[in-house]
Amino acid sequence: MTSLSLLILLSIGFAAGVTTVAAAFVRARPRLVDIVGEPSPKSSPARFAFLAAPLADLELAGQKPETFMLHRVVFAAIGALWVPLLAVVLALGNVAPPVVLTGTLSLATAVIGWMLPAATLKSKVARARTELRGALACYCRLVALGRIGDRGPVEALRYPASLGEGWTFRRIRDAMDEAALLGEMPWDGLQRLGAATGVRELSDLTHVVASAGHDGASIITSLRAKADSIEQQLSAERKTGAAVRSDRMDLPLALLGLAFVVFLAFPGVATMLTT
């Protein structure tokens, strides 16, 4: 019972520490003076430098750094606590596992729980960037059509964004609306959106569109070339992903074959060992 009491005390202490850390990242209701004097989030990224997740990824996934950190702490706590709780249940049945083994497994599951939100975020961001790039290829073609129809550079950018549906075109519209409120050109908003989401093609598009006033004749060709380039890259990435997924299927088949061989050989091996 001494080891059991130690496990319970360790679990309570860990839970208290996790609760304290999580409470530090839960925002209280801000005061007006704090909101007025609060610096821009882009000017103070050092607070979340230890997240091991770029702020651009969090912004693209629509997740706040505080929420991401809270998820990591909660998953780590769940991973760390379920092993001691299982040990307590086993101890009640007179099957008490060694304390060292319990502590090692608890630490391992805590690390897995800590890394799980980051892996989920990485997968979500990869899909979001692919969707945004695919929408950007379509957007480039619509802007080129607008230029063919003698629309000005600003109108050619804004009108196609109002036609599209989904979160990708909504982000493009919001970026240009923000630029308009700041008294800037639409491509300045797209430039910021590209930097915030980590989509390099958006920044490239701004350079193409910004030169429309100087070289309006060639911008149509440049926009179509940019759309073709994005579509070719997406196609190559899809083929690579399909090949990787196909290769991953070989491992389960190999394990299944190995398990079948062990199943067939086990009776004979067991007979040899007992005789």
TrEMBL record:
Does Protein biosynthesis appear among the keywords?
A: no
Task: Tell me which domain of life the UniProt entry assigns to the organism this sequence originates from.
Answer: Bacteria
Annotated membrane topology? Multi-pass membrane protein
Could you tell me which residue ranges the Type II secretion system protein GspF domain spans?
A: 140-265
- One Pfam family this sequence matches: T2SSF
Location in the cell: Cell membrane
Keywords per UniProt: Cell membrane, Membrane, Transmembrane, Transmembrane helix
Give the matching InterPro entries: T2SS_GspF_dom
> What sections of the protein cross the membrane?
73-93, 99-119, 253-273
Q: What is this protein called?
A: Type II secretion system F family protein
Q: Which organism is it from?
A: Amycolatopsis silviterrae
